[in-house]
Amino acid sequence: MSNEDNEKVFFGSKEVSKKDKKLGVDNIFTKVNENYDLMNDLMSLGAHRLWKNHFVSTSNINENSVILDLAGGTGDISKIASKIISKQNVYLCDQNASMVESAKERALNEGFYNSMHFNVASAEELPFQDNFFDQVFISFGFRNFSDKPKALREIRRVIKSGGFLNILEFSKVQDQVFSKIYDFYSFNVIPKIGKIISNDSDSYKYLVESIRTHEDQENLRKMILDCGFDEANFENLFNGIVSIHKGKK
């Protein structure tokens, strides 16, 4: 095992090995899978739907685009993109097999299965050839990667020259007063919602903690550039609760 593999990373508020983070994240998303979509609605008061629609609509994909919905969960981004892309050129990939099965079931039930390919794989080891995708989308999954720089380099490998990486992720709130209100809601309300809906407050406590230990806007922009992308910028939404980062290869 290399020294890089032995480096500690944040799993919530704890520092653990990259292997332990990967296993821990996989375990959490297996547990929350059944109520995942409902919890997203409750935790964000439905705002995540607006953010995701804006995320895709500002990406300039077209009917001929080949895209990867990475850490795709139950397929929110894939569903939106499949309304634009005319061919079977939407690829959903997630390291959690339970999530991918849920995405398949949802795609069948909601009519976008024929647009899709499904893969179970981690972002650090993608099962795709070089220069394959026009754009890669990551929606609220980047902070859960066990090795973010390695994942970014791997993502860059599979993007075509001139293509884009798009990351929608929780970020650093810009207003101090609003930040205090947001912290109170996150640490006191969200775990209680998880307890009521899923009988699982610990998983949602992790999700809140993982937001606070994730890179802020400028540090994530720098990381994208350091991993080989030629351009990187970001847009804040909702006072920085979330941000959209774009990297161009």
UniProtKB/TrEMBL annotation:
Q: What does the sequence similarity comment in the record state about its family?
A: Belongs to the class I-like SAM-binding methyltransferase superfamily. MenG/UbiE family.
Name the positions where S-adenosyl-L-methionine binds. T74, D94, S139
Q: Which reaction does it catalyse?
A: a 2-methoxy-6-(all-trans-polyprenyl)benzene-1,4-diol + S-adenosyl-L-methionine = a 5-methoxy-2-methyl-3-(all-trans-polyprenyl)benzene-1,4-diol + S-adenosyl-L-homocysteine + H(+); a 2-demethylmenaquinol + S-adenosyl-L-methionine = a menaquinol + S-adenosyl-L-homocysteine + H(+)
Q: Give the protein's function.
A: Methyltransferase required for the conversion of demethylmenaquinol (DMKH2) to menaquinol (MKH2) and the conversion of 2-polyprenyl-6-methoxy-1,4-benzoquinol (DDMQH2) to 2-polyprenyl-3-methyl-6-methoxy-1,4-benzoquinol (DMQH2).
The alphabetized UniProt keywords are: Menaquinone biosynthesis, Methyltransferase, S-adenosyl-L-methionine, Transferase, Ubiquinone biosynthesis
EC number(s) on file: 2.1.1.163, 2.1.1.201
Q: What's the superkingdom here?
A: Bacteria
The name under which this protein is listed is: Ubiquinone/menaquinone biosynthesis C-methyltransferase UbiE
Which pathway features in its UniProt record?
Cofactor biosynthesis; ubiquinone biosynthesis; Quinol/quinone metabolism; menaquinone biosynthesis; menaquinol from 1,4-dihydroxy-2-naphthoate: step 2/2
Q: Would I find Coiled coil among this entry's keywords?
A: no
**Which molecular-function annotations from GO does this UniProt entry contain?**
2-methoxy-6-polyprenyl-1,4-benzoquinol methyltransferase activity; demethylmenaquinone methyltransferase activity
Gene Ontology biological process terms in this record: aerobic respiration; menaquinone biosynthetic process; methylation
Q: Known PROSITE patterns for this protein?
A: SAM_MT_UBIE, UBIE_1
